[in-house]
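2024-03-11 09:14:02 INFO worker-7 job=invfold-0412 stage=load source=structure_tokens
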């Protein structure tokens, strides 16, 4: 019985460790390219003041990688057909390498196309304009943007007119499985495995 008791203690300790919530991984980026190389790699490069940031959606299924639309009044353009007002997306959280802009601040923005959407993030050379001396020196004076809004890049999450209707959601709120706490799905198999391993010890003691 002493060996069985020790085995059960080990099983419970393992179950406790496994059931602990895992820490979220932070964004990890390589060293950004020099300004000239970053300019060549980017789809658009511009400077401007952030005038609007759409709030993150409340409730429902939300991911930190979901894009937040940021609208800029553009003052200079170094690459791309950028108009005087442009909206670009970035991941909701810096944990997903999203750049968290502040309304009213000026930035130099390096944008790239991802999944058909213009976006930017922490792994680019996007930075506050006040601390972008290296970029401004290397890139030189930019061009004045064309007047108007960019008709293609206004919505960072465009919806295709041919997109099929969303599937009907099935309400599983009354399922008996919902009453089982999430940690039980992890701890249960571990305890079951411990019980199976304990059977030979109990037979020997018998």
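2024-03-11 09:14:09 INFO worker-7 stage=emit residues=206
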């Amino acid at each position: 019985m002493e060996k069985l008791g020790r085995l059960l203690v080990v099983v419970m300790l393992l179950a406790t460790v496994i059931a602990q919530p895992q820490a979220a991984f932070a964004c990890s980026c390589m060293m950004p390219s020099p300004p000239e190389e970053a300019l060549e790699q980017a789809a658009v490069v511009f400077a401007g003041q952030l005038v609007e940031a759409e709030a993150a959606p409340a409730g429902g299924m939300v991911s930190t990688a979901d894009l937040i639309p940021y609208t800029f009044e553009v003052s200079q353009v170094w690459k791309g057909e950028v108009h005087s007002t442009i909206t670009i997306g970035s991941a909701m959280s810096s944990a997903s390498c999203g750049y968290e802009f502040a309304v009213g601040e000026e930035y130099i923005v390096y944008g790239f196309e991802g999944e058909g959407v213009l976006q930017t993030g922490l792994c680019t050379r996007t930075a506050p304009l006040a601390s972008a001396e290296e970029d401004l020196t290397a890139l030189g004076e930019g061009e004045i943007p064309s007047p108007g809004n960019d008709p293609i890049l206004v919505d960072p999450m465009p919806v295709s007119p041919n997109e099929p209707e969303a599937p009907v959601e099935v309400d599983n709120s009354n399922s008996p499985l919902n009453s089982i706490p999430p940690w039980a799905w992890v701890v249960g198999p571990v305890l079951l495995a411990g019980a199976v391993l304990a059977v030979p010890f109990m037979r020997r003691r018998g």
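2024-03-11 09:14:09 INFO worker-7 stage=report msg="The chain has four helices and seven strands."
2024-03-11 09:14:10 INFO worker-7 job finished
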